[in-house]
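Human:
Care to share another protein and its fold?

Assistant:
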Amino acid sequence: MSAEQALDIAAEKNLDLVKIAPQATPPVCKIMDYGKYRFEQAKREKEARKNQHTVDIKEIKLSLNIDTHDFNTKLRNALKFFAHGDKVKVSIRFRGREMGHAEYGYDTMQRFAEACQEVANIEKPAKLEGRQMLMFLAPKSGK
């Protein structure tokens, strides 16, 4: 039907004429309440945003000479982060003469990664950057 006829019908019903596919030949239109349509669409988008989860990066700071209880506490916190679906950045800051013993830092990082290996993958292996050693762990997918 012509555009004028469609506009007349929409005006009779107190509704709007909305182009669904304007690039088609002839253009496809629909008679609807456009305000209600926009409201429903915004409501669906808001619901989708509410249900989505953003992945945060949580940081766990270890030290070179960390004791077993402190290590286990940090490990337990990391496991909570993985259960929540977050990534974990593990860092060790070397102070003073500790820079001469970076291999102990690698050992600590390796021990932490092995303890998390059931629930997490190594995203970036341990790497020394200046006075800090960093490693990134991500939760395993498919839970």
Summary: Residues 34-51 form the longest helix (18 residues).
